[in-house]
Amino acid sequence: MEAEPVIAAEPAVEESKQEVEKVVPEEPVESAPKKSDEFAYLDAAGFSSERFKIEIKNLPKYYGINEMKKLLNVKLSLATNKIKIMRPGCPFLFVCFRDDSERQAAIKAIDGYTWKGKKLQALEAKPSPDPLVKRRNESTKPDGVVSVKKRRTLEESVTALAYLSYEDQLKQKQSEMHNVLKGFGDEVWKSCPTLRSFIEQKRKEHDGLPCKLEDIRGSPQVDGYRNKCEFSIGKDGQGEVRVGFRVGSYSNGFLEVESPDQLKHISEKMKSTVKLFEEFVQKSEYEVYSPETYKGYFRQLTVRTSNATGQVMVVIGIHPQELGEEKLSELRSSLVSWFTSEKAKEIGISSIYFQTIEKFKSGQNAHPTTHLWGETHIIEEIHGLKFRVSPQAFFQINTPSAEILYQTAIDLAGTTKQTSILDICCGTGTIGLCFAKHCKQVLGVEIVAEAIADATHNAKENGIENCKFYTGNADDLITSLVRNANVQKDEDLVAIVDPPRAGLHIRSITQLRNARGLNRLIYVSCSPQSAVKNWADLMRPRSKVMRGGPFMPKRAIPVDLFPHTPHAELIVLFEREPEQDEEEEEEQKKDETEKVEEKEEGKVEGGDKAAEVVAEAKV
Description:
Blueprint: H1 10-18, H2 41-44, E1 53-57, H3 65-75, E2 82-85, E3 93-96, H4 100-110, E4 114-115, E5 118-119, E6 121-125, H5 131-139, H6 154-158, H7 166-191, H8 196-205, E7 212-213, E8 228-235, E9 241-246, E10 257-258, H9 268-283, E11 298-305, E12 312-318, H10 325-339, H11 342-347, E13 349-356, E14 369-374, E15 378-382, E16 385-389, H12 399-413, E17 419-424, H13 430-435, E18 441-446, H14 449-461, E19 467-471, H15 474-485, E20 492-497, H16 506-513, E21 518-525, H17 528-539, E22 551-559, E23 569-576, H18 582-618
Parallel strand pairs: 7-22, 12-13, 17-18, 17-20, 18-19, 20-21
Antiparallel strand pairs: 1-3, 1-6, 2-3, 4-5, 8-9, 8-11, 9-10, 11-12, 13-14, 15-16, 21-23, 22-23
Helix pairs in contact: 7-8, 7-17, 15-16
């Protein structure tokens, strides 16, 4: 804080009213560094919807971002600009609008509205401070130096387990999967009283877990296994331009980018590609993009490699700012010249794409890419099948481990030539096509049209005729897939679910529960902690919405696709319980509920008696 100037006497103040310029504050004896304005971004960055923000309180325990969007934008006909959910299950969130009239209309529509049994509250909210500036202000010492308690190295940030032997890494991941399943059992026990006896029985059978946990399957390739990386472009602590990974985060007050040279999970081919592009950026007349000032051009480099062919695809992400088409065309041409040099040929660069990275426009869910040179795709192989991979399509980042992952899923599914497979969130069709020779047919759905085009091409390229892939949201198409499968009495239906990190929407879970003939489900999760809610919903008793019988967990198998990091995939086999007569099931549910109520009453009665004894003693 600045020292206050010394004010003379009262007459001087009067004099200052006549000649303000004559009043000069004395030099402060000691001055602390000036704090930066944490809200300057509201003016410096142009329009910001943070100015017109509201807070919605008293939200239900379970809701998703898509449900919230539908409520606000469709049912209440509001025009939201941004929705900020703090964490899953958070009882409040923030919504931003484009002007004050829209904000006031939202408050009027939302405040007092009942949603999922909860009466919502809505009120104006203040803009959030810039997290980078806030962190710097909090960490700045009187001498102006930014203090940091402990700054992690890039290796510690990106490959947190690299200091352990691979055997010890697997032991740690096995223990973590045990904890996840234990938490899953606890969640079901708390949220589904009618399943408590089932959970308690399974805990006795499986070392405290709701199902059997098998040993983790390790990765055949431990170092240099990643076939895709998205590298940031910025400056290191010395101000040198670097292509690599951020050491800290924006919210922690750090923007520095460091080279991936020492990271074990990045291949030499990929590191050489990064170095080559880093040289280009260092020599370029254009600055790197700054998330603090929103100025600059170079934002991201995506590199994809193929284990099978050695191909390398590069996708250069640029913020165009105010560059005209002529300048952008010159930049694209110079990128092609650079990435087709002799050094680039030695690396194996076979494909160049140009990507424009700006703020998403309405209805946009991916940044547009333009093919500049070379092959339009790279080719990868799994289980003897060839897969075409496009720039933005999903493909497992560890190809050798993916083979183990898919074989494990095939073994768990127990398919025959009378089995139809539903491949939910199918991506480029890798899982479904690997299943094709083990079943009657595969029906896949994926929201990314580019990935479906790849899946269809991959099926044709490999001569597979019993697979069909559909573009669309799984939330809307699962019922149609079940109908198209046309499963007969002597046939069976198995679903393979491999969703994004956040898991499936409740609408997808509901459709899977209500699918007739679907009695086995394989859930592949890259974030098991996030999947617990989905798993619990698969197990819930029947209801008016979930009319189909529950799925129960039978086996869980971890597969390590991410050596040197804390992450691992977890495959869980669910099987539908045998169909019960509705009256019999209702009676069983009633009995279980009564048992729970009796236990609760016993606790209350015990508490009352204890209170009576205490009262008598006092008398």
